[in-house]
Amino acid sequence: MYYDPPYFLLVAGLFASITSGLAFDATLKQSVNEWARNRSTQTLENVQGSALRLTFLGICAGICVFLASGVQIFGFPTGIAYGIAALLTLMTGLLVWWQLGKNLVQLQQGGSKALDLDSFG
């Protein structure tokens, strides 16, 4: 039996990822700016609050649906497609979240110059 590829879910997953990403960007900027103004005892690691986690999970969910739909377009069954997409999304999401934490610690310890990507020497 042949099923139509889930083109709608492909677009919906991409849209969810982009809108969640914009919300993530705004939330992260607001949190870091608030921390920079106050420089309180709160560390930048604590900036990763529930609002930031929720938007990041929105990005991951959208990407998972997008990837699974893309894999289904190539003829894979739904279960296998979502298994592949969930594994890829989980591993990538964990790496990105870990790197964000490292960057926030680096920002806290050395200021914005610590994140200067143009100076490698």
Description of the molecule:
- The protein has one domain (7-109).
- With 121 residues, it is mainly alpha-helical.
- The model has no long low-confidence stretch (mean pLDDT 85).
- The protein has helices at residues 7-38, 50-73, 78-110.
- It contains 3 helices and no strands.
- Helices cover 74% and strands 0% of the residues.
Please write the string of helix (H) and strand (E) elements.
Answer: HHH
- Quaternary class: single chain
Q: What is the general shape? A: elongated
Rg: 18 Å
What's the helical proportion of residues?
Answer: over 70%
Please give the number of β-strands.
0
Sheet having the most strands: none
Number of helices: 3
The stretches of 5 or more residues where confidence is low (pLDDT under 50) are: none
Class per helix and strand makeup: mainly alpha
For the terminal residues, how far apart are their CA atoms?
59 Å
Overall number of domains = 1
Mean pLDDT: 85
Q: How much β-strand is present in the residues? A: under 5%
